[in-house]
Each structure stands twice: as C-alpha cells, then as structure tokens.
Task: structure prediction
Amino acid sequence: MAAIDTAYNYYLSTYANQSASRYDSHKKSELRNIYNKIVKINKDSPLYKIKRSGEVQKFAIDIKESARVIKNVVASLSDAEEGIGNAFQKKIAYSSQEDVVSADYVGNSREQAGLQDFTVEVQELAAPQVNLGNFLDKNRLSLRPGSYSFDLENTSSTYEFQFNINADDTNYSAQKKLANLITNADIGLRASVVEDADGLSALRIESISTGTAPGEDSLFSITPQGSRASLEAIETLGIDNVSQEARDASFLLNGAAHSSHSNTFTVDNVFELTLKGVSEAGNPTVIGFKTNADAMAENIQTLVDSYNSILHTADKYSDSQRQSVKLYRDMSSTAFAYQNSLESLGLMVGDNGEITIDRALLTEAVSDEDSEESLSVLNDFKNLLNMKANNASLDPMRYVDKIIVTYKNPGKTLATPYITSIYSGMMMDRYC
Result:
C-alpha cells in the first residue's frame, strides 16, 4: 500500500486544493467515449513495466493535471458562438477593488447581451463558528490519565469522539491530539492549538462553512458524555465554549440589501463574486466587463500560460525521466508549427518552445479591423494544442520511463485485462 500512499499523498498535497470548474464534469456519453479510446490505446500498446520510482507516479500525475488545465482552457474558449474571433472574445469580469470583491464571469455567450456594470458594497463578511477552549499551561497536565468521550453535533449528524490521556502527556500534547482527531475526522471542521502572549495553549475549533440557515442556532456543538470524568475534561478544556458565532455576509447590490451564507456566490448565474473585505462607506466596488481587446489579450495569455506549464512539467523531470523529452517534443511542436504566424501577433516562440507575449503588439493585432483573419492562426494553434493535450491525458504513461516486456501480435491485439488504464494501475506496479 506504500506505493498507493505515495501517489495519493502527492496528488492531495499538490492538486487537491484546486477548485473544480464546470469543464471537469462530463456526460455519460463523453465518459464512455474516453473509456473506448483508452481501451483502443491499450490494445495497440506493448506490454511493459514501469520502474519502481516515486518520480514515475509524480510525473504521470503532473502530465495528467497539466493536460487537464489545457483542455479546460480550450473548452472555456470554445463556448462562444461560431466565429474565430468570438473564441477569444470570451467575456472577462473586472472589479474596481479586487481587495474588497473579486469577480469571475461564469456565464456563456448567450448571456452576454444586455449585461451592464453594477455596484457591490460589502457591509459584513460571512464568518465561521469558532470554539476557543481554555488557555492552559503547556507543560503541565490538567486532566487525569484515562479515557474520555464527547459528542460533536453538526448540522447533519452527531459524532462520538473518544480520546485517551496518558501519564506522560501534557496539556499541549493532549490538545494537539484532539486537534488532529477532529480535523482528520473530515466533518467540516478545522482544529488547531493556539498560544497566547503568556505561552499558554488552547484548542481552537473552526467550521469550514460560514453563515447559518434559517432555524439554525449554530454550525456545531460539543457536549460531554454522561460520565463525571468526561464532564470534568470538557469543562477543563473549554472546547464547548463558542467564542464566535457564524454569521452571513451582508452587502448591497446596486443599493439593494442582500445576504449570503458564504463569501462566494453567483449573481444571476453570470458573475461569481468573492467578498474579501468590508467596503469603505460610500465607496462601492464596480463590477463589469473588460474591453474586448483586453479580454482577448487575457484569454490568449491564459492559453499560452497553460501551454508553457506543460513544457515546464517536461523540463522538471528531464533528469529523472529521460522519456520526458517526448512530452516536450509533442507539445512544443504545436508552437513551432505556427511560429512565424504567432510571432506576427506578438506571441514570441523561444528556442525552447516557450511562448512569451509582447502585449503591445498583441493588443494592436487583436484591435485591427482584420483581426479575425489574424486570429485564425490562434484558433489553429488552440485546436492542435487541445489534440496533443487530449492524447497526453488519455495515456500519460507514454512519456514515463518503462521497460518493454513484449510487443503484441500485429493484427491480433486484445485489451490487456485489469490494466485498461495503466495510469490507474501504475501505483500497484511493485506487486507485478
């Protein structure tokens, strides 16, 4: 199981905090199509073993994630109605005060018409519930050694927690033990040990969600179980004490009062707003769209960034994975194929294939009356890059170092049982 743990721990620590987009969800027919393509690749590929190296798993995961980013960017630029220019004219929201309210446009081309700027004045941010325990001497032990238990109830369920205190524990180690127990339970709470100016420590428990629904008094509550020892333990720790109640965000949209359980919400399913700070009195934030030229330049920058990122992935593993040069060649060929045309638009292709943007030249090109003709090369580059990323996503293992065991009999190929996608099976390779 250690090989599985290595791969999953890397994925969780590197990518788990990234937010999913609507392009990460798929219809059944799309998933079936992907599966069929993977089976076809499996039929035509030789049998091989991957080397026992954590770098193999990391490299494959990085390829998969880099390709996913490219595909999502291309998908977002393909939402527009027909027309080469429209593909890069996807609207981009702007905020006049990013430190107070940030804005993302999550609508589609059919919802762009008639949208106008609006104002947001943040009166209060949504806040989580916080329970702050008693501050205790870190180096002493205020609880008797033994077993204790308490109930923790959130908005959906009640959980029983049990913990042991040993003779060699201190208040700090006991609090740390409880913090890990509550956080690792994955029930929507974060717990940590905090210290005050006097060096005393306390257990702090915070809800991940904010605000309360109608009829809710709190997001969670802690009550000791019936034994006298547990009652005394919770009283000593003080973790049932609510130091901050959850509250909703309150704000004005074009002067009209609104509220939200979360600091992130959508307006008319078109704008996604994230409240970050309280507005100065009489100084609301203006939300609107960037100009067409600015939006096109930023969309092109996003596409270029996703392309450069997968080149960086290939370079990152060039020492440990010699086959990473295949990934570099596959991806950089998309830029070299259109190098002259791209550079005429301000997209400068370096010797290593990486693209840098001359923003002034790009803005001039996309603002020209014949911009649609100029942008046709960008559309071709986008489509070729998407095809390369899709191939890498279907079979990232083609780019990792491996040992060929045998080639299949041409014309009589069959899918290899149980490893239709060796990307999934790679984590069990040490048992082969």
Observations:
- Residues 121 and 252 are 5 Å apart (CA to CA).
- Residues 292-316 form the longest helix (25 residues).
- DSSP finds twelve helices and 19 strands in the chain.
